[in-house]
Structure formats: structure tokens, C-alpha cells
Amino acid sequence: MAEAMQVNKRTRAAVEKVQVEKKDQFLAFVLGGEHFAMDIRSIKEVIQYGALTEVPLMPDFIRGVINLRGAVVPVIDLSVRFGRPATDVARRTCIVILEVAQEGDIVELGVIVDHVSEVLEIGASEIEPAPSFGSTLRSDFLAGVGKVGGKFVILLDVNHVLSIDEMAALGAGGARADAS
Description:
By secondary structure, this protein is of the alpha+beta class. About 25% of the residues lie in helices and about 45% in strands. It has a single domain, classed as CATH 2.40.50.180. It is globular, with a radius of gyration of 21 Å.
């Protein structure tokens, strides 16, 4: 009898363990009235929008650079990167500092967002694959679509959105067009 109760407890514990799904954390933010989120593991910090130094002959999506504790950090306007109008700076506008992998190195970049809203915990079962239509974003920019509280949030693939190689190529194309 005691042995049967012990087996029953182990079975119940195993079932409960399977039922508890691991959830990843995402930083949710608003950009142009749409809700987005990024994996929190790539985020270093969130800072208030402050003094940006504009750099001449940069692509439109690079708004400038900031001094972050002695380091020069480029700041990208995500809205422009997505082919939309530039972000209007308001009271809640902030810069999300990210660490992006680039050829074995970690590069710090800032992205401008309208405002950060919260940290979300989303399980794998709550994430749908990126749709091939219906979004104004390139599908390779999307890690998926999360379902949170009956609403959808677009999960960005930071390594594609902020690909240094692609942004450099876009910048070189823009600089050539400006020079001619």
C-alpha cells in the first residue's frame, strides 16, 4: 500500500512537471502604435531618450550616437528600419540598449522606441510562427507572434532586424545614392 502511494506521488509530480511549461521573457514596447517584443536576453538596459549626436552621411535609420559610460553606441530608429516614418520623440520615448552577436563579437546598439510597456513571459505553446502575409515587416525580422492575454504581440528576431552586415550594405547603397 505504501509503495503504491509512493508511485502515485511520483506519477503526479511527473505530470505536474510536464504541465509547467518553461516561459521565456520578452521586453514589450510600442512603436508607431503597434506592440512588439524582443527576447530579454539580448537587452542590456533601457535608458531615457537623451542627447544624440548626429553623424553626417549615415543612413536614415541611424539617428546618431550616444555616449554610454564612455562607449560610443550607435542608435537606430526602428521605425525607419521598418520602412516607416521616423519616430517622433515624446516624453516616454526611450532607447533600448541591445547586445547583438556579430562575427564572434558582441556589439552594443541602441534602438529608439515610443515606450517600453512591460516584461512578458511567453511559453512556446503561446508563440505562433511568423505569418507570411498580413504584416508590414519582412518575415525574417519576426521570431513569431505571441499570444498574451487574448492579444497578439510581434516578436522580433533581433539578430535579423539589427544585422550589422545588412545595415552596412544598406548604408553603403544610401551613401552612394547621396554622393551622385
